[in-house]
Amino acid sequence: MRNGARILLECLKLEGVDTIFGYPGAKTLLVHDALYDDPDLTHILVRHEQGAAHAADGYARTTGKVGVCLTTSGPGATNLVTGIATAYMDSIPMVALTCQVATGDIGSDAFQEADMVGITRPITKHNYLVTDVEDLGRIVREAFYLARSRRPGPVLIDLPSDVLAAVSAAPIPERVARRGYKEAAAANGRQLKAAAELIGRSRRPLIYAGGGIVLADAAQELRELAGKGQIPVTHTLMAVGAMDHASKLSIGMLGMYGAWHANKAVEQCDCLIAVGARFDDRVTGRLNGFAPNAKIIHIDIDPSSIRKVTNTALPVVGDARETLAQLSQLVEERDRGEWLAEIREWQRRAPLPRPERAHLVPHLIMETLARLAGPAPIVASDVGLSQMWTANYLPFSSPRRFITSGGLGTMGYALPAAVGAALGNPGTTVVAVTGDGAFQMNVQELATCAYYGIPVKTVVLNNGKLGMVRQFQNVFLDRRYCATDLGSHVDFCMVARGFGVQAFKVTRKEELADRLKEALAVPGPAVVEVEIDPDCYSFPMVPPGRNSVEMIFSPEEWRGAGA
Ligand SMILES: Cc1ncc(C[n+]2csc(CCOP(=O)(O)OP(=O)(O)O)c2C)c(N)n1
Fold first, then answer.
1. From the CA of 112, how far away is ligand 1's center (Å)?
2. How many helices and strands (H and E) does the chain possess?
3. Does the pTM of the predicted model rise above 0.85?
4. Which of 4, 120, 188, 443 could connect to 164 by a Cys-Cys bridge, CB 3.0–4.6 Å?
């Protein structure tokens, strides 16, 4: 006989969990009590529950395992919501454990009661309210199965305090199955053959690689297919690192803040092979201008993703890894040198800007970071200009090394996600790149880093502004800067030191490399605050409502166009 709290931990261990990111409260007491003398589970006490969700997410993205977070009822649980939605939008496997008021009190507006099943229904792959301790083992195992199988996603389990206190001798089920929910079947052979034929007939094929490739651990298979057919690959924000950036077939990121030549390749290709991608509006620009000359092959594990936004000539439902491996067998070896040369010529004509300036320009910061951070660091980027600069200018050669909130675009993601990444990947350099706005949204996690000695290096690109929004105001709203000035009064180094974290300030280009080196050499966490010009923006960009090839490279270009 053991109580529900101990059954919960037993299940977590069966699922291979080693780390839980959590925050206690009255309703978690039994779970934390069971954790007290459990040698196999490490509980990391974050400083805000949103941090727990992002840490579990960062752990999951970088390890491929299911991330776990734990909170008390009511405000503790609702504080997870943004983190759960972030994971949901990017299909990240996560199990969120929220404790709840006793079953008899549910619906009575009890102290710290919030209907988590109701609140999280649209942002979870599935959620449960456990009402009987006898169901607990099955539910926890099912939750992990659902979180990691097929298209992954967050699953929430709401755990009433009486269920956690109740005892049971029931064994934990060895296997779980859910009626109506099957593991993904292999891709249809006829569709695969048709896809290979379409690619064979294509003179200008292009692979549009999405986050599903990373989630399915299919980078190797992607590289094989691209290599065999000599097919160039453009990737989304979610698939950074799926291709080696140095590969001659890798043409960089597409979309609103991507590379112009990548968008041009999409416009000019005659066959677009979308893999684990969902045609997000930030990728496509105006839909009818996206791949107008191409037959689209869409490979995805989730049939509901196919034809959701765009017309697909050939849908292939299946796991990205298996499907790409099979497709590689079927496609012919080809030389597509002419097509590749054409794309490289577009790149030469309109490269990503790398201005030489006396001040600290973003590409210089990223290139210096890349040079100093060692062979394969993990970089968690926040949302804003810093995200686009990180994705465009930092070179990545393998997947699960660049993590960011792509779908929801959650500011405040980077630092707590980096905490999770560091705990999941001991010995690996982990860097959080953030803006001064986003940093302030979860800055409290510096205390978590300091307390546990988690060696996350945070680079704060301080422009005193909400830069990405200001860019819109600059370009499209006649420089009417409303509510985007954060001021320059915050001393982030002093803030970091207040949390017990070493900090370094960079105000001049000449200091950058030395300060970064010093921060990277600190055995624990460190913060590097880099002052950057508030009028440094992310160009090129696709103006809203435009075709993705209609990128502008400066504000003047938009104003000059009389738009
Ligand atoms: C939680 C949240 N609130 C608001 C936004 C809208 N938003 C997107 S980018 C951005 C500005 C980010 O500013 P900062 O973190 O300073 O980075 P910068 O763009 O200056 O690099 C804002 C407000 C968001 N994405 N997330």
1. 31
2. 24, 20
3. yes
4. 4
